[in-house]
Amino acid sequence: MAEGGRPPELHSHLLECPICLDRLRQPKSLPCLHSFCQECLGTYITKEISEKRVSDTSFPCPICRRTTSPVNQTEAKEKWAEQFPTNVMIQDLIQLKERSTELPYCKPCQRKGTMTNPAKFWCKMMNSFFCESCKEQHHDFIHNDCDILDISEYDIRRSKEEESVPKCHQHEEKMLWYCEKHKCLGCSECMIKFHKQCEITIKAKEYLEKVKSGKQLEDMKEKLKKGADVLKSLVTDFDERIQTLVQNQEMALKSITDLRKRIDEELDECQKAVTDELVTKYKEEKEKMEVSLRQCDRLMKCMLSTMKSSVKAVEENNPTEAIMMYQRGQAEIESCQDLIKDMRDSSTSVSIQHQLPKSRTEGVAMLGKIVIEKKPRRFPVDPGFRPVSLLDCQVKEIKKFNIKIPEDQSYCCVCGVLYLPDGTMVVSDYNNSKLKLFTDEGQYLDQLTVPGYPRDVCLVDNNTVAVTGDGVGVRIVKVEDSRLSLLSVINTENDWYGVAYTDGRFVVSDGGVYSITQDGAIDLLHQYNTTCWNLVRDTVTGDILVSVYNTSQGQVAVSRLSADKRHTDVMKAGVLKGSRGIDVDSEGNIYLCGMDSNNVVQMSGDGTRVRELLTSAHGIQTPWAIAFHGDKFVVSNINASHDGRDHIRIFQLY
């Protein structure tokens, strides 16, 4: 037992290698501030490079995946790990932690007879503990240049700020400056030598205040928490899937055993072959899932650690530590998002089953075969970490509610629906001649009678909408304080179907598409060969998108009209027939209801990428209206059962 007792408990994550999960040995720090055993890091670098190109001059950090290059890239890969700086602070902590199992007491006081006077300092050179008084009277009087550590608190970051500031490995000066252009800390000599031409180089304290005032630290903390929550859900999900694999294995083995009892002993070798195949495939799939589980678990623990450390650094007003944690957190967030996207792209449900033969055969075939089925599966993550493009998202139903109110005389027929910026919805009920207002949770707010059977609706501004109808022109309606009120009417004798608002004018449709003014003057923009039921303005390009009702293969289904009356066919009828409701998202992707094909199609703005988003398998029957808001959209069915007509359904892309 060392003299003076042992130091208090230190945070274990500071002393553990993220690769071997054991106590750090010869800790080496990468530029991203993650530390590893020198041996573990060397093994990782050698394996990482050997699996890629031998000529590579860099490697990704095992934790945050940040690209890292050694100082001397020409040296053998096995020597790269030795080039990185040793984390002396962690070495000191490990030595301090391993010294004893007793409380630390002042050594000079013990020699004077006071055996239990608590120590506040530890001298690395003398390997002894001192109270504050003995440090000043004995230690500092002789050894004023020693590297002495304040152990009065559990966390080394509670020592004096000057003692916690790391030194520049090139100039041995404290890194008290920060370059915003290169996003790095440096000493005074670094700033003069390497950042002289940079526009903004400020003190670390000043940059911390700037980051705090701009709420970047709060945003990072929130994203770290969200990322950690996502990874936690993935860890749980992988655990459940591994259990399912185990159950599938047990059921398959039992099936094989039961079958074996019904056949002759001469099939022993056949049974062994099938059993070996099952176990091999089970092990392969299980190992794949365990690798993903460990990857998620490791990154999750690092993100939680970074979040706690950053909060603590801000509370203690330690700018250097806070900036380091901020940079490390940003790298871990990017790594988390990349990891989630990669896993989402390859996400499947795996099932291992033993299939029996359909007819009596001989040999191995009589025992059946082992089949692995992989099907697309819902990915259990927060929408805030979805893929970059909505075209790559999956879809799930999140809400369904009844829009029929007691005053209605008929079942509902929703020919138009609009998602307002505040999340409320305006619904055009053709059968009951009403506009209705709901929250997206299904709470009824208000109604407005619209003579002439209302059809399509469009947004004029954040709290104003317009609606078309039979023989009533265009009606402009105010939506304010959860109420609907009529503002004005553009009188025409036409039966308009679709409506959109662009550049201070309304665009309407029947068999053609027209521009109309406030006084009712009509200008033909383009004539089509059939009814154009719905219109929408593309907020990305400013064009008008037209749903053209055609059911024959190869006829136009979606058309694009520009401000100079040029039209372009975006999509032909095929996978979708009988175009009705149409809308666009913030990326310019188009969503279209196929009334005759019983589906909802999502496509890129130019029509080059098309996929069925919803089909009859999702309960879609003759859909008419659709409206998009953020990553959510609402769909109506008009010729379904009465219950289906009276309900609208909300879906979400994730």
Q: How much β-strand is present in the residues?
A: 25-35%
Helix content: 25-40%
The CATH level-2 architecture of the largest domain is identified as 6 Propeller
Could you state the oligomeric state of the chains shown?
A: single chain
Structure summary:
With 654 residues, the protein is an alpha+beta fold. Helix content is 29%, strand content 29%.
Question: Which tags fit this structure?
Answer:
654 residues; alpha+beta; Herpes Virus-1; Neuraminidase; four-stranded antiparallel beta sheet
Written account of the structure:
This protein has twelve helices and 36 strands. It has 654 residues and is of the alpha+beta class. The protein has three domains: 12-159, 2-Layer Sandwich (Herpes Virus-1), CATH 3.30.40.10; 216-382; 390-653, TolB, C-terminal domain (Neuraminidase, 6 Propeller). It has a four-stranded antiparallel sheet. The chain has a four-stranded antiparallel sheet with strand order 14-15-16-17, with no helix packed on it. A hairpin with a 5-residue loop joins β30 and β31. α8 (204-213) packs across α11 (319-345) and α9 packs antiparallel against α10 (268-315). The longest helix has 48 residues, at 268-315. The chain starts with 26 loop residues before the first strand and ends with a strand. Mean pLDDT is 82; it is low at 1-10 and 154-163.
